[in-house]
Amino acid sequence: MPAAANLSYATFRSESFCSTNYTSPARHFRAPNGLAETRFRLRDVSVNRQAFRFNLMARVASLVGRVHSPSRVKPQTITGTRLKMTKLEKVLYTARVHTTGGREGGASRTDDGRLQVALSTPGTSQTGTNPEQLFAAGWSACFLSAVKTVAAKRKITLPNDVSINAEVDLGLAEGVHHLAARLNVSLPGMDEETARWLVEAASHTCPYSLAIHGNIEVNYNAITSGSAEVQHA
């Protein structure tokens, strides 16, 4: 078995909001500490392009008064399961941020004053951060906490230098701006199978991961050696 593990084990792909494919490895992983075998096979799913466009046009039309009864719009379905918005049963925290100016020379600040940032367009010499960097920071911080939470519940010992390198791409698909991302979770010295299971479990726990699941292409990489090179899908 190689000393370095470079594992892109789960990929969620979305193509222009119309066709969604979920892929996972053929291999099954056994949860550590004697837990029952956990399987992460995901079915290939396809959403009809024409039906989706009709749904989108109908919903947009309803906003401008062309369709008077939104109930007439047929909900988008995936393999017979209606897509539902998750409703919070209890609000634990609400972040409040005031933003002006947008990407080009804008600024954002929180209501408690703990965060104040200038904004600038990516790739320019302007001073400031951008939404992609902020999203990468927030998501990676949340995901790392999810890794720690899952590890604590399963009594898995984490390395002291566990960390995440997050990469968020801003690009175009059919003339529309989209995102793609990679979370490279560094777990030096951990058993490969345990590391993969842990990252997979965290992806089903982190609220950021749950929010973007199936919407953008994401690679989760579990790396058990600092010398491993991350492979991008």
Structural class: alpha+beta
Rounded mean pLDDT is: 74
Provide the β-strand percentage band. Answer: 25-35%
User: In this structure, how is the largest beta sheet organized?
Assistant: 5 strands, mixed
End-to-end gap: 23 Å
Order of neighbouring strands in the sheet with most strands: 2-1-12-11-10
- CATH-defined topology: GMP Synthetase, Chain A, domain 3
Q: Work out the helicity level.
A: 10-25%
Beta-strand segment tally? 12
How many distinct helices? 4
Radius of gyration: 20 Å
Strand-and-helix sequence, N→C?
A: EEEEHEEEEEHEEHHE
Question: What is the CATH architecture assignment?
Answer: 2-Layer Sandwich
Overall shape: globular
The CATH homology group name:
K homology (KH) domain
CATH class: Alpha Beta
- Report low-confidence residues grouped into runs of 5 or more: 1-31, 33-48, 64-82, 227-233
Whole-number tally of structural domains? 1
How would you describe this structure to a colleague?
By secondary structure, this protein is of the alpha+beta class. The chain has one domain (7-43, 79-223): 2-Layer Sandwich (GMP Synthetase, Chain A, domain 3), CATH 3.30.300. It is built from four helices and twelve strands; from the N terminus they run E-E-E-E-H-E-E-E-E-E-H-E-E-H-H-E. Strands 2-1-12-11-10 form a five-stranded mixed β-sheet. A three-stranded antiparallel β-sheet has the order 7-8-9, with no helix packed on it.
Quick take:
The chain has one domain (7-43, 79-223): 2-Layer Sandwich (GMP Synthetase, Chain A, domain 3).
